[in-house]
Design brief:
The chain is of the alpha+beta class. It has 13 helices and 28 strands. The longest helix is centred in the middle third of the chain and has 42 residues. The model has no long low-confidence stretch (mean pLDDT 85).
């Protein structure tokens, strides 16, 4: 007997007799892929949905290919998708299930699995939840085919086993619980996206217009006399443009040692630099004297000088999260002249998309990576308020927005963990919902 089936049979016996393990074919009205005949004619202009269009529980319509007349013969053997269908990527990135809504009409290609439930949206929702559960994912992962490119066969999809409550009302109640959580996750994700949009606009305004004596953004239209031309475009009249070398007098390479020691001083690497901040989730250590002699201090700025063109130039600020840390040789420590430039302002400036583009112009190609040495880095221009106090005010306003983003991100992670825990409990019958009726499925 299948080991996962044994596991769930044992679980079922130990908790309740009101749950059972069923084959997905007994749960769905049909399971197919896009190679089956379409039950109605395919017309020009209809979307052709492939596995790459399935992402984050939705169909990515931006990359969906629209059928043209020349494609008619090629796509006429594809399957229509209907409201309530669950689409499942069968090749490349396996999974990414999507529930089709009424408006999402199109045809699916052969690399998309189609689970149909005969219009039963409760069953559709239940199976969608199961496709996110470790139990189903484990069955799929252990049954993948292919050597160079992994894929899941239609046979595997049709052999999936899933736990279900015998009473439909329990299924409905559990689905309602997860709908509530998913709505909270979607709402929080939307808030984060809006806050990030606000931050992008805020950064542009603050770092080109600055703040007046009242702490308000300067208005270039109402008061053009307050601005001047510069190599970086219009900037406030009392700002100046410098080469980084003029305001960042020190640039220091990290250490080149083995990072496989069990004990020692943590050594920051490129992967520890994320979104302008230091991430300590994956640390390597060194017990060498070099690491002990080159410790991060204060609010040092770390710059990633060597990597692929996408990652070179990544920058983050050290905030003393742990008592001691050093940094690897492909990072550079930048120390500004704090009488003219604050660490925080420098970190924000170097992380600007426009600044990142300027920096990458100085990248020199290597065998598999590119490099930006500190000498070239410090040729990059920076626009600065003459008064450090204005820099601090600008940073403070950006920090307020960042704090809101981090608060929402923390809440989002909490919701996701809550959902994960509930999946382990409610989708196996380990924990039962209360007051459900005995209407059978």
């Amino acid at each position: 007997m299948n080991s996962t089936l044994v596991e769930f049979k044992n679980l079922q016996r130990s908790i309740s007799q009101d749950w059972e393990i069923v084959n997905v074919e007994f749960f769905c009205s049909s399971i197919a892929d896009g190679t089956h005949d379409s039950p109605k004619p395919v017309e020009e202009g209809y979307p052709l949905i492939t596995s790459k269009n399935l992402k984050d529980g939705k169909i990515n319509w931006e990359d969906v290919y629209l059928i043209c007349e020349a494609d008619y013969r090629a796509v006429v053997q594809r399957s229509w998708v209907e409201e309530g269908d669950i689409l499942f990527g069968m090749i490349g990135t396996i999974g990414n299930p999507v529930i089709v809504t009424k408006k999402e009409v199109g045809v699916a290609t052969k690399n998309v699995g189609i689970f149909r439930f005969g219009g039963d949206l409760i069953k559709s929702r239940w199976f969608f939840l199961m496709l996110e559960s470790p139990f189903i994912l484990k069955q799929i992962k252990t049954s993948l085919d292919g050597s160079t490119q992994k894929f899941v066969s239609l046979k595997t999809l049709r052999s999936l086993l899933l736990p279900v409550p015998k009473h439909r009302t329990e299924m409905e109640r559990v689905a309602e619980i997860f709908n509530t959580i998913d709505e909270a996750i979607a709402h929080t994700s939307s808030i984060i996206a809006k806050l990030r949009q606000i931050k992008a606009g805020l950064l542009h305004d603050l770092l080109t217009r600055g703040l007046d004596e009242n702490g308000e953004l300067r208005d270039a239209i109402a008061h053009p006399e307050q601005f001047k031309d510069s190599p970086l475009g219009k900037i406030p009249k009392d700002w100046e443009v410098f080469k980084l070398s003029e305001v960042v007098p020190r640039a220091e390479y990290g250490i080149s040692v083995s990072l496989e020691d069990e004990v020692g001083i943590p050594v920051l690497r490129m992967n520890n630099l994320k979104n302008g901040e230091i991430d300590l989730t994956d640390l390597k250590k060194s017990g060498s004297r070099q690491a002990a002699n080159l410790l991060l201090q204060g609010s040092d700025i770390l710059f990633n000088r060597t990597n692929s063109i996408e990652h070179v130039g990544r920058t983050a600020i050290w905030r003393g999260q742990i008592s001691q840390a050093s940094f690897a040789s492909y990072l550079v420590r930048l120390v500004p002249d704090t009488s003219r430039l604050t660490h925080e302002y420098l970190n924000i400036w170097l992380n600007l998309p426009a600044t990142q583009l300027l920096i990458r112009r100085y990248a020199t190609p290597g065998v598999h990576q590119v490099n930006i040495n500190p000498t070239n880095l410090r040729k990059v221009l920076i626009a600065l308020p003459k008064e450090v106090s204005e820099q601090k005010q600008i940073v403070e306003k950006i920090t307020v927005n960042d704090t809101r983003i981090r608060t929402e991100e923390t809440y989002l992670e909490k919701l996701k963990l809550q959902k994960k825990g509930l999946m382990s409990d409610l989708l196996t019958g380990r924990v039962r919902v209360k007051a459900f009726q005995t209407t059978s499925i």
